[in-house]
Amino acid sequence: MRELPRRLLERRKYVFIALLFLSFLFLLGGFTKLQLYNTEFYLQKSINNSIRSIEIYPVRGLIKDRNGNILVDNRPSFALSVIPKTVSTQTLSYVIHHLDLDSATVYKRINQNFGFRPVIIARDLLPRDVVDFEERRLEFPGVLTIVEPKRYYMPGVNSPHIFGSIGEVTQVEQLLSPIYKQGDIVGKSGLEKKYDLSLRGTKGLEYKRIDASGKDLGYYDENRNIPPIHGNDLYLYMDYKMQCFAESLFTGRQGALVALDTRNGGVLALVSKPDFDPRSLSGRINPEIWSKLINDPHHPLYSRAIQSTYPPGSTYKLVAALAALQEKIITPHWHAYCPGYYKLGRRIIHCWKVKGHGNIDLLQAIKGSCNVYFYQLGLKIGLDVWTRYSKKFGFGSLTGIDIPNEKPGLVPSIDYFNKLYGEHGWTRGNLANLAIGQGELLVTPLQMAQFAMILANRGIYYKPHLVDHVYDYVDKKMIHFPAAVKYIQGVSEKNYDVVREGMREVVNGGTGWQAKVRGIEMGGKTGTSQNPHGEPHAWFIGFAPFDKPEVAIAVIVENAGSGGGVAAPIARQFLEKYFYGKLLPRPIVKRDSTQAVEETEPLKLDNFNPIPITVPIDSL
Amino acid sequence: MTKDFSAKIDLILLSAILLLLTIGLFTVYSATYTGHAQSQLYFNRQLIFVAIGLISMLVVAFTPLKLIQRLAYPFYGLSILLLILVFFLGVKGYGAERWLAFGSFKLQPSELAKLATILAVARYLSSPEVDINKFKHLLVTAVLIFLPFLLIAKQPDLGTSLVFLALLIPLLYWAGLNWFILFILISPFFTALFAFNFYAFLIWMFIVVLILIFSRKAVSIMAIIFILHITVGLATPAMWAHLRPYQQQRILTFANPEKDPKGSGYQIIQSKVAIGSGGLWGKGYLNGTQTQLRFLPAQHTDFIFSVIGEEWGFMGVMIVLALFLALLFYLLYLAVLVKSVFSSVALIGILTVLFFHVVVNIGMTIGLAPVTGLPLPFISYGGSFLISTLTMMGCVLNFSMNRFNN
Questions:
Q1: Is A34 in CB contact (< 8 Å) with chain B?
Q2: Which end of chain B, N or C, is less packed with Cβ atoms under 10 Å?
Q3: What is d(CA B161, CA B114) in angstroms, rounded to the nearest whole number?
């Protein structure tokens, strides 16, 4: 047996000592870095690992009318979601096949997400599919059915253009509003869109403990859970009975009705016909119904009250009258002679009353809606003043009503005509036409109702709004919006009084006699506007009562004939319902006993081309 | 006898072992805790393994040293035989390791081979006629080590086989191999490593040349060694390029598992999260979320140190590391102290095996070492390894008791 040299070992042990020390120092460094410097980072990771936060969808706010009657409510619907980390390709392809989904969309959705957060791949399942998946739950690991609220419209509730629809958020909407997460349900149109942030509520969070296999082990810490907050309830200004009634007046007709409370701008009714059943766009959309809706030549998806623009016809004569009075171009006593036609250059244009109105003043011209009078008046005013006053009264710009996609219409100006026809390409013929509400001028029914409100209040008006107040579930109280009062600068009350007087005459034996509500003094104006789509549109605007106005109304019935004959009776029925709660029996009126006859065509313009004028206008 | 027992047994060593075993039992309990009574299954089994291991330890401790020395070769022969048998009768385990099943008792022959190889090499190197600096004797030593290495690597249990490879240099070094042969043995590895960077390779070759000149050996020997290095340097990148991409990938992943977050990288990432989130004081016993919610794979076996790191924090880690370091230093102290060459060399072998297991296993849990499947001595769950470790400790106790015997 040999011995190892002691001295050698004494020397060589230091190599071992050094190696041991260095190795352990190396480990020590690793632990120091992990446990002392990056604790927070890894702690967060471990929390994320084991605690899954699950979003709890809040109940979307309800929509109620002024009396608190529920119009739009929620009902549970079932959605199918998958957990990307757990679901197998095989299961997924079965689900896609079974529910007849588009596999590209489904895979795109799943690939945009990862981990344990359930991704909704189908919404509003049919009851049999829900039962099917629930019963065979164990066969489909990673597939969950989720209950989510779906809009429910109470029986008798219609008005799709007011409420609008909801749907899954698009990428564009997500970009515009980062608050939206993929898969969120958001308002797509109408009140649902405008008040989405208020209606949607606040999502809640539940923290659940899960193990590595994704198994739910119950709540992590119940005190940490955040309950969802109910979306705010909207209270409309309108009494929905009035809206229903107004809609019923349009049975078999196309058009719009807007009624505003002149005291605050609240919308009493906002009708657009034809429309569609809002239920057909709630939840699962039947593609057949959808394609029928978008291909319908009558455009039921369009909200005519705020989105359709029409020539206003004779109702617009009031603007010319106000402009002329305010600019002192005429006095109320200024007379013009109507022989039943008017020579503009080489053209002869007819008044609707072939016999002529004779020598009439402003009040008589409004009452009889004399075209010849207003041709002459328009030519006296000039385009610049006319444009300025049109804009003053809110035409050509949005009213700011609380539903999206409102259209501003069009008020032509000198610049506009110069651009359209060239500097000298347009003539006074265009101007004469504008004065009687024809030509390039386009307005929405809502703007006309707003104009009626302005006239009713002698210049004071309010932003039209559907929603009066909301119930806030956070503060547990009603929130009222401040009324947005506006005032038309630079038009004197005296001049309003003249025009208002004319409007009273219109209803009392004038062209709008059929709008007269018994026992209520009121003002109005009819219009029959030519349009390229066929029969003229029938217009009526008005307000009531005359001295202490409450309601301003604008009615248009598309391609229906004369304003006095078609639109005025609709306005009357609405006002009767409003003031008396019922329709009044009509006295039998002999047609001959009134002077009012229906208006007819104004100056016909071929494709809006300018008319050559040779005779100087100042000879008038 | 009792007086004799307490007087002779190495109490320092024994208490270190018992302390580590206790920590191990507690940790296994936590790592396999599910809140149900049946969750104690692993703990109970480990308790039985500890008991068997301790008995085995004491039996070996009180076996005459001469007998152990004499039995070294037969023991080595037996374990080689078992390693060969495993190819024909072996059952595959959870990893790459192979088991031999004897009824309900399963044995991992590679664990047995560790101690057998150490004892056999120690016996050979302690023979009076053996001069380690002679090529013939060096070759025999190398064969003693490479035989089990190749058999285990073929299983293919790469991690365990590397333990044998790690034994070679320390044993030879301790047995008195001169530094020049050591240099010839070690340097080609560096050459292969540096071959991937031209400048590093250049500098390394310059150092090699300097050392060769300094050695004052015959020019022919120097030339042969230098040419050898150049060959290795040129061949390695060529061999690398010759590998299929997936093979390259496998080697790269072995070196840096975090590149593969779904495979072995997943373990590393979860383990780092567990340890990092433990912080200074840990989350408390049985309160580690990573552990208790089973985010850690193999948390009762290979990744058991993550459980300690998560539940006991940096302080717990320090204590366990300090215990291991103290144990290793004590083994080194004994290796210098003991008179018997056999004991001394065997102690260095045991020291190396323990050291390799501890550093690779713990380094793996924090992403500083590849995932090799090496368990942590005294702490990881598992019978064969625990019993073989304790048997080694029995040898150490024996050497300690007979420190003044030749």
A1: yes
A2: N
A3: 9
